[in-house]
Amino acid sequence: MIRWLIALDSVVRRDTLRFFKQTSRLVSAIVRPALWLLVFAAGFQNVLGVSITPPYETYIPYDVYMAPGLLGMVLLFQGMQSSLSLVFDREVGLLRLLLTSPFPRAYLLFVKLIAGTILGVLQAIVFLGVARLAGVDIPNSAFMTVIPALVIGGFTLASLGLLLSVYVKRLENYAGAMNFVIFPSFFFSTALYPLWKIAESGALWIVYIAQLNPFTSVVEMIRFAMYGQIDWRSVLITFLVGTVAFMIAARGYDPQRGVLGRKSQE
Amino acid sequence: MLLMTVALSIDRLVKRYGKLTALNEISFSVEAGQVTALLGPNGAGKTTLFQILTGLFVADSGQVSILGIDIAKEPVAALKQLGIVFQQSALDPDLTAHQNLIFHGGLHGLSRKDATARADKWLKTFGLSDVSRKPCRQLSGGMKRRVELARALMTDPALLFLDEPTQGLDPKSRKELVETVFALARDRGLSVVWATHLVGEVVNADTIIVLDHGHIVGKGTSPELLIQTKVNSLEDAFLALTEQRHEGHAA
Question: Which residue of A146, A196, B18, B131 has the lowest C-beta tally within 10 Å?
Fold first, then answer.
């Protein structure tokens, strides 16, 4: 058991070390959502009225509505960064080193997932502090109650990233793949506007896509958790999507059955 | 008793990629404490064989046993016995040599204290103490290879796999690496499988297996291969064995 924890510790330390050595990544992880919050929320503050919908008990400013979506964005980018790190590891040969370690392959991938989740949660909490400093009305208790939701959300988005890394083999293809995942996930969700608002505008097709989008569940789970509430539907969907994505990804990395095992020189 | 002396046993190994047969009924064994060279031109199947030996790929049929452990059935137990240096460098360029070794130790379940002690010892053995705190991207090709060798040895493997370990090295670094590995096998009783296409590196190997297009076309010590092919140098023997097969195919 101790061996397994040591391996987990080793991967988490290495990924954390890499994260803190990459200054631009460190800065952009916070600046990106902060810019959205300061610029986008300020611009749309008076355009988008948000009425009383759970978990909110009163009318809220737009930046308060947007904060959970931006926390989701932090996790989404981190999830994609985790998979980018796997593609990088494949390019520099480190993935082979990881996969030839004396542990079950699914555990090694799970460990990578945990490392990505921890980094995502840490960034999200830092961003929450930044949002609070920027004047967003966030309850004190949110710093604690949101953590389980961030962990589940981070796990799911890192799993989806892991799944992406099975199929995207080269770094140069990754930017395009990330754009295809990040932007549709973010825009076709409740991160920026509530679904009823979109339905009101008549764009029902966006509503349907948003309802199917797992990122919507992540955002709603975080939104409720910030106010000490549990949106079970979102929690279950998020957890289920994360688990299924991880299982498919682990199968993809399995030398007996996966796509990697069918290709030479990968 | 026989199992104790066989470090690696490969029995009728077959691997296909679609219509291409990368390995065709490959069988051989490696005695404990011996250096076995896998000599073959590019495309011979060396890397595919390596990927199967290290559990990265699974063979279509046949069996690989490492110290009597079937890698397909018990990959974790088999991988514990291995030290591996891949053809492509596998160091994290942003981490120092020391950090790379500590990371590897953790992946083998070594405590941080133990991994640190072993990393220090092996980096010193390979004359890398002075550069051990530099990011690996700042090290020369030869230094990086030595770091990888130190990393492969820090877990005390019974069997060391080297896949074209001298690729990209200058002649001096190459010579040093070859001498180091042969000395390790001699002094520590380490079993080594060395895949290469550079004949000069493996003249002194205990057994040379010549691989071509997924087939074993020659096997023996260097003098035995010279006798078998009736030539004066191992390089000529290698060419004769690989060309023989091509002529056979053409005919």
Answer: B18
Q: Which residues from chain A sit within 8 angstroms of residue B106, using beta carbons? A: 6-7, 9-11, 13
Which member of B17, B76, B95 has the closest CB to residue A104?
A: B76
- ipTM of the complex model: 0.84
CA distance A180 to A84: 14
Name the residue type at position B180: T
Spatial separation of the C-alpha atoms in residues A243 and B167, rounded to whole Å: 41
Predicted TM-score (pTM) of this structure: 0.84
Q: Enumerate the H helices of chain A as residue ranges.
A: 2-21, 23-35, 41-44, 62-91, 94-99, 105-133, 142-167, 171-187, 195-200, 204-212, 214-225, 232-253
Helix (H) or strand (E) holding B212: strand B207-212
Task: Count the Cβ atoms, other than its own, within 10 Å of residue A163.
Answer: 21
What are the tens digits of pLDDT across the range A73-97? 999 999 988 888 888 888 888 888 9
Nearest to B216 by CA among B35, B44, B36: B44
A214: closest CA among A189, A197, A192?
A189
Residue of A nearest to B20 (CA): A264
Inter-CA distances, A82 with A45, A164, A261, Å: 33, 10, 22
Residues B142-187: tens digit of each pLDDT: 899 999 999 999 999 999 999 988 887 888 888 888 898 899 888 8
Partner-chain residue, chosen from A97, A102, A263, that has the shortest CB–CB distance to B80: A102
SS3 at position B155: coil
